[in-house]
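Incident review: delayed structure delivery

Summary: a single-chain prediction request sat in the queue longer than the usual turnaround. Root cause was a stuck worker, restarted by the on-call engineer. No data loss occurred. The affected request and its eventual output are reproduced below so the record is complete for anyone auditing the incident later.

Affected input:
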Amino acid sequence: MEYTEQVMDHFMNPRNMGEMDDASGVGTVGNAKCGDIMRIYIKVEDDVITDVKFKTFGCGAAIATSSKATELVKGMTLAEAEKLTNKMVMDALGGLPPVKVHCSVLAEEALHAAIQDYRDRLEKGLAPRTEEDDENVRYV
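Output delivered after worker restart:
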């Protein structure tokens, strides 16, 4: 399986990896077939993603797509970030082998889930998330 130089760079040197204690929103998704689990944390101020982190349990492509997706959306408005697609992530990485496309889909879905979580919490007037709040993993 051939990976691009960009995929290998993001796998070997992931950007924005880690947790965020005071995240505005958290999105967690998983793929039951391959075992990949992605969690993306976003910090939102004035409708802009000011910080973003990820934790991914999975293959190199899963780590690389998580890393690239977080890099792409940092500094975007929520409306801009909601338009991020898995194809945009793959294109930014120079492509993925067909068998690894699902990793980019997980990155897109985890980001969108984090944005939706932020909007849901804002609507309900809830405080920033904590790790204990996010025990549910949605498998796709």
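Verification: The longest helix spans residues 101-124.
Action items: add queue-age alerting; document worker restart procedure.
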